[in-house]
Every structure is written in C-alpha cells, then in structure tokens.
Amino acid sequence: MRTHVHRRPLGALSGLLAAALTATALAAPAHAGRADPPPSPLLWEHGFADPAVALYDGGVVAAATGPNNVIRAAAPGPTGPFTDLPRAVDSWPAWAVPDQAVWAPDLARVGDRWLLYFAVRVRGVGSQGRCITVAEAPTPDAPFTPVGTRPLVCPVNANTPRAEDRVRGRGPGLPREGVIDPSLFRSRKGRLYLLYRTQGMPSTIRMVRLSRSGVTVPDHQRSRELVRSPGIVENPVLVQRDRRFVLLTSEGWFGHCRYRTLWQRSRSVWDWDASRPQVLLDRATTRLCGPGGADVLQDGSVSRLYLHGWVCGEGRTTPCPKSFTKEADVSTPGQRRALYGVRLRWSSTARPRLGRWLAPAPTPAP
To answer: Cα separation of 333 and 45, whole Å?
Structure first.
C-alpha cells in the first residue's frame, strides 16, 4: 500500500472492503493495451508488493512492502536477475509501533544521499492507521536511518509528535485512519513534492511541497487534495510529459483480481477536477490477477512500468484464478504478489500505452 516525471534518478479487510469496491468505479474501460499470454514475473520467490524501483551505479534496486521492515532486491539491469538485500531500515522512530508491517515504500536520490519514504503503524488512528516517515542512507543498498524526531506526514489526531504535514481533510471525516503510499515527485525545476493516500473511505490522494532536502515541509506549505474516491484509490505516481501531467493510481481492494491501475491527465499539477480516469492495467489488459502498485522508472528516453500481481501455487508463477480473493483463499498454496515489468509508451498527447513486457534475465550459472 511509488518526478515532474515521477523520476528515479539516473546513476545512482475484509468483506467490507470488497463490498465497498462497487463504489469505486472511477474509470470507463478504455484499455491501453493487451497481453496474451500473461507475462512472466521478474521476481516472485517471495512477495514483492507495492514496488518502488530506482537506477543506481550498481544497476537497479527495488523496495517493497514487508512484514516488519522494507524488503529490497537488486539487479544488474532492469530485468534482473534480482537478488535479496538486507532489510532496509536499521531502527524505528520512537513514536512508531514496532514489529508491524511497513507499507508501500518509495526510494529516490536527493542531493548526495538516498531517501526512503514509507508508512509505519502509529497509535490514535485506528488498528491499521499509519503515518509516513523518511530515512536516509549514502547508497540505496545500505542501511537506512530515520530522519528527525517527528513524522513527515500524519493526521492531527495521531498519537505522535506534530508532523511536518498535519493532514486535515477537505470535508467531513477525512482522513479517517492515517496516511500511506508515499511517492516522490521531482519537478523540472528541481522542486520536490510528496504524494500520498489518506486511509479509510472515502479515500483521497494528496500532495505536499517538500524542502530541497526532501525530509521536511517548508514553512507555510500545506498539503492539498488532488483526487477523491468514494471507495479505494491509492499508490499515486505522478509523471510529466511535456506540458501535461499524468497521475497513475491503483483502484479497489488489493486482495483480489479486480484490483487495477488507472491513469488520468491534467494540464495543472494541482487541479484534477476535470480529468477522466482510464484503465491502464487490469485482468483484461494483462491476464494478471490484481495488477497494481505501479511505479514508473525513467531511463533516458525509455519508460518502464513495474507492478505487482497475485500468483498462486508453490514453486509456480501462474496468475491466481479470476475468482481469487486473499481472504477467501487464505489456504491457497503459494499465494503472493510477484514483480512484473513492462515498457511504457506515450502518445504525443501524453496517453500511456503498454509496450512489450519485460522478460526476466536468466540467472548466471554457478
């Protein structure tokens, strides 16, 4: 639970949620491509949900949601082969609840250091409520140490020190539980912004201006709501193509095959009221189960999209069946979210289209 392009620098639940999904039909099924047969995962041995992928001197590093830390893997190139790295974060903020799942990280180089944004459990915002913090390291494969003594983003009612961005919703009941899914956006002028989701329903995507360091919010800056859904909208990623901005989001409950990825365009980075979400990734376009958590990796003129999808079966890479749900099929062997990649192509009017799926690089012989 992901630039003025969302740019990774070069060189360097239940039945209630499932029922609520019926209220989240944001987009007409304007499909952006079709994959037949389903692609092969780039990484699947263990779950790799909500991937964030970045280029660095050693190749490619990826980070993902983990059971009690951010999990990471590295590869010499964009298609692997991936090998595990040690868990990312070396200590926890004093205000965080320890030994809880860490959700939806984002990874980026800012200046001469690497920053890792992620969501951790806190008290005061419900049983699953989280707040966003940031940690730093000299390289993306080194241990990350939390920055500062307070959250980067957190609702006003959380039991934490005052956050850099104290979230107040534009309307009754927002946010209800917490904030998750941080995603860094870097403007062409070098300005930094952080997008994120407010938990609970309705859910929103918000954005706040960051300082040049990427770890604080400048004085007098407040987050603003970009998108609202009566159901679940999450995992924001922002891309700039010429004078248009493209927002990618995941829609629905992550635990079944109807989870999907949407895109929408705007000529203003702050105003999305007139934009119309459309489908980029779903079961029909990919033959995958629940394709979501997408992240864009810009490598020169090449755009690649990394995402997760459910696979089922011990030792297999087969997408879970259409009827799969995480809650109902808890005993299904080997269920996990695998990492996939696909080339992303753009029209002259900034419409994204799926290109060729990335085939996993072979593992070198011992």
So the answer is: 13
Residue with tokens 């915002």: 125
Please give the structure tokens belonging to residue 14. Answer: 């239940």
Beta pairing, strands 153-155 & 165-167: parallel
Cβ neighbours for 351, distance < 8 A, ≥ 6 positions apart: 32, 265
Distance CA 262, CA 276 (A): 10
Ramachandran region, residue 102 (left: φ > 0; alpha: ψ -120 to 50; beta: rest): beta
pLDDT tens digit sequence for 36-56: 678 999 999 889 999 999 999
CA 264 to chain centre: 16
**Contacts of 23 by beta carbon, 8 Å cutoff, 6+ apart:** 201, 230, 231
Catalogue all structural domains in the chain, each as residue range(s) with its CATH number. Answer: 15-357 (2.115.10.20)
Give 335-344 pLDDT, tens digit per residue.
999 999 999 9
Q: What is the pTM of this model?
A: 0.89
Residues 6+ apart with CB under 8 A from 63: 51, 52, 70, 71, 72, 88, 105, 106, 107, 116
User: What is the DSSP secondary-structure string of 54-69?
Assistant: EEETTEEEEEE-BSSS
Q: Token pair for residue 23?
A: 């209220």
